[in-house]
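Today's session is about reading a structure prediction critically. Students often jump straight to the picture, but the first step is always the sequence itself: look for stretches that repeat, for charged clusters, for runs of hydrophobic residues. Only then move on to the predicted structure, which in these notes is written as discrete structure tokens rather than atom positions. Here is the chain we will use throughout the hour.
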Amino acid sequence: GQNTYMGDFSRVDKRVKKLPEFFRQPVSQPQTHQEGKNWAAPLSQPLVSRDLVLVGRTFGQNTAHPLLEPGKESHRTRANGMGFTPYGTLYGGLLLRPGIDGRLYCLHPEGGAVLWSVQLGERLFGCPVVIAEDVFLTGERTLYQVDLASGSVLKEAALSGPVRGSLASDGKHLLFLSEDGYLQCWDAAELREVWKLPVGKYTDSTPAV
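Below is the predicted structure for this chain, in token form.
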């Protein structure tokens, strides 16, 4: 098992390492005169909307594939250069994806166009939760309430610790685990804490309701 890679990621033997045949689709053509293709690996769980499978990929790209022909690519768009976190939420015909640039993006699922985006800090974690017309998402130590139609920030609330997992909701309350060791329950309408229970520090999971 000799390592054939140098510290600069070049191969010692200079042989081209090709992708297996089943990795050929979907790929994107580079904007050069070369015949090669750029591999854009999936970075999220697949989401399904109107018989389309939606996949978030590297470098801010989104691809859509027919549900009955997942190897076929319906369209590919690029929303931002930094890329997305592995999370996404479909709601009301809209695709919500947190970007690793700290922005929350609202995308058209069938065309990939950006309908709006809003800056919510430096890093975002977890899937957004939508209740009626409001989107809820956590930043480093902040809980955000965002208008679904416009992307305007309606409310912000400081949290006792960072939240790495996703929010859960019963339609009236928001539940999440913070890294300072608490399972927390917040009232969604008033964005206020209802209770919190110590469960253990550095917990990154998502509650189930």
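Discussion point for the tutorial: Residues 1-11 have pLDDT under 50 and may be disordered.
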